[in-house]
Each structure stands twice: as structure tokens, then as C-alpha cells.
Amino acid sequence: MRFLKKSKGIFLCFLICFIIPFCIILGINALGFSSSLNTFSNGFTLCGVDLSGLTLDAAESKINNKLLSTYNNIKLELTYNNKSWLFTEQDFCVESNIHTILDSAYKTNRKGNVISKIKNLKKINKMGFTPQVAVRYVLTDIDKKLDEICVDIETKPVNSSAVYNAQKENFTILESKNGSKVDREKLLQDINNALQKSNDVSVEISTTEVLPELTEKDIKQATTLQSSFTTSYANSNADRKNNVKLASSDLNGISIGAGEEFSFNNIIGKRTAEKGYKEANIIKDGKFVKGLGGGICQVSTTLYNALILANVEVTEAHPHSLPVSYVSPAMDAMVSWGNADLKFKNTTKLPIYIVSSANGKDLTFKIYGDTKKSNETVKTSSEVIKTIPRKKDKIIPDTTGLYGDKIMFKGEFHRVKYGKDGYEAKGYKEFYVDGKLKNKKLIRHATYNSQQGIVYEGVDTLPEGMTLPKSNEKLD
After folding, report:
1. In 3-state terms, the chain is what percent helix, strand and coil (to 5)?
2. What is the rounded CA–CA span in Å between residue 335 and residue 243?
3. Among 306, 383, 293, residue whose Cα is nearest residue 339
4. ∠ CA(127), CA(128), CA(130), 5° rounding?
5. What confidence category does residue 315 fall into, taking pLDDT thresholds of 50, 70 and 90?
6. Which run of H or E residues covers position 145?
7. pLDDT tens digit string along 59-88?
8. What's the predicted TM-score (pTM) here?
9. Among 451, 471, 454, which residue's Cα sits nearest to residue 390?
10. What residues are paired with 313 via a beta bridge?
């Protein structure tokens, strides 16, 4: 019994020390992973050519002979629908430049230990250095030929879009169209497979559909009303009304694509008489003065408020230096060519559409898109936190008789401008979900200067015994 146990122990030791390692070595050699560092592993193929056990030079020689013989004196016709393109050997630069990829494959094939080599072999065969390699490395300018063909075959997809009809006040949604693209990898595979059988072949070009980014469903969503805001300009003079209508019409129906930034000044352009703009009151250096394009700021302000209510990301907006009458304090947006702009960015995945109308009394902007949640409402609020009292009236002697038909003597007054208080104010954007206030965000803290009243006074001395009537003009 002891002898049997001792024999089993010796046999087990022999098995572990000699038999198993010998089997492993045989297995490694069978896989081609011998200690030699100069040959390809067993099972390695490139472009359909078996390179097992070959040195780098021998592998290159074998594959060159195979590829050059395959592609020598070729006639290759490529067809697509009713079109065809015929190429011969003279149309290509037929040469073998396979050594570059051979070097790369060889280094990958020989790298690492036994396990990693097995993985590398699988990786190489999977990547593989497939028939596409053969076509590209022998017919070295095949891709240039395909570029020319693709110009005739490929079509770009057409996105759906919307056109606003101002008369009908609705959108027309235009149909999207699929595009097509040549499947180059499949084509190269088909060319190689065909040339393996004959040097005179005809290959049908395969294409794949390219879908548009925006479909009719997307544009229907993008033409959903998100907000509307109106200001009145009924009391404006004719020239100011002209400017408001002119600028608002330039903005009516425009679209801003996903990721694009809108610039008010870029759309409206420089305000010139050639474009039809007239002089009206503008705010300049803290004063109301005549300027070309007066009234434009009411257009930008109305649009600004519509954008806020639509929860659009406004990237640039500026308050006036003086308060304006058509919106609450801190809710205005002054623009000036080359100086101050109104900008916003479309951070959604769909276009944003702007619709405007100016009927001589009311100016309205509407924003369409997918800028807020269906159960979300955005409102604005304004808070005057400080009043800046106006200064006492500025009294100017009417030495030139500018208002001689109204005033003559000292103590007689004619007002040409009323003074107004200034403000320090804050503007807020309020978010409501299902009718409940969820968030209130400060969007503006602005200061508006006060305005001094201006009164002219007569300069003549009142004759003795004459009494002036009581003035109806109350001075600050």
C-alpha cells in the first residue's frame, strides 16, 4: 500500500513538472506563438492571404505578388441606377504600398505575452486588415474616384421648416426629405470580392439613407406658441410710428436654429434714411433728443419681454438711462447701432420663430418654439426700490423772443419740458408650475436718472402800474 501511494505521488509530480508544461508548449507552438520573434503567428491573414510563419519580408513579397496579379489589367465598372463609371488600370496608380500596414500588424501580432498575443490575433483579424485594405493599398487613388462619383450620387437631407404667412397669421410646414450617402466600406468590399474572381467586373454602388435632423413632427412642435407681449405706441407721432412698423416688419417670421444666437442689430441693420427711417425722439446722454430711427427701442423692448416670458436665454440686454413709459422699470431693452444690442441664444433642439405685428396702435411680439414645459408659465414683475427726486426746474430767460407769442415780461413762464423723478428698480422673472409660484429670479437691477424740467421766462420789465395775471404754470 505504501508502495502504491509512493508511486502515485511520483506520477503526480512527473505530471506536474514535465507532462503539463510539455503540453502547454505544444499548444503554444500549435498557435504559432513560439519563441521566434521574426515570424507571423499561425492563423494570421491579411487581405485574404495566409501569412502564418512568414517573416516580414516574406509576407510582403507574398502579398505583393497576390495583390498585383489580382489587380493587373483590370476593368472596373461601377453602376448606380442609370449611371455608370468605367475604370481601367490606366485610371489608377496600381502599386503595392502594403508594407506600412504590415509593419503595424507585425508589431501588434508580436506584442506581449501568450494571452495578449491571442487577444491581438483576434483583434487583428477582427479589425482586419480586410479586403478594403487591399483595394485602397493597391488602387491607391480609388477614394479620389469615389469622391467624384459621390458628387453625382449623394444627396443631402432636407429638414422640415416653417414659413409664416403674415396675411393668414399662420405657419405653413414644409416637408422634409431623406438624403442618400454612398456606403464606401461596403462598396470597397464588393469591389474586392468581385476582383477576386475576375479582372473584368461590374459592381453596383450601394447607398444608405441619411435622415433629416428636423421632421414635420419636430416643426409642428416648434410652431407652438410660447409667449406674447404687447406695448402701445398709439400716442406716437407719424415718424415714430413709421420706425416702429419698419423695424418690427424686419423681424416678422424669422427663425433662429438650434444653437444659433440672435442679434437685433444684425437683423435690423444700421438705421438709415435710405432704409426709410425717420427722425423721432431717442435717449442720448441722458436726454431726449431727435435721432434717426427713434422708436426702435420700443421694438427691442417689446421683443425682450416676449423672450423673457418664453423662457429664452437672453445673452445681452441693456436698460435705458431714463425711464420709458411703455414698460415697467427694469423691463426695458435699449439698442444702439455699434454700441448696445439685444441678443439671445437658442439653447433648445428645435428652431425658435418670432412673429410681430404693428397696427399703428399696438406692437406685439409672439415667440414660437419648445422653450418651456407645457405646465410651466413665466411672468415678470417690477419693483421700484428707490425714487430719485427730480431737480428744480431750469429757468431760461427768453432773450431771443423764441416764445414771444406766449411770454414777454419777467414773471411770465412757458414750460417746454416737465421734470420727472428717477428710479432704482429691480426686474424679476417668475416661474409658475401648474399655477403655483416655484421660483423667482432677479434679471435686472437698474438705475434711471431723474429729468429736470425746463421753463422759459420773459425778460422785459413790467411797466409801472401793470399787474400780471396769475400764472397757471406751477414751478418745481
Report:
1. 30, 30, 40
2. 14
3. 293
4. 130
5. very high
6. helix 142-153
7. 878 877 776 666 667 888 999 999 999 988
8. 0.73
9. 451
10. 345
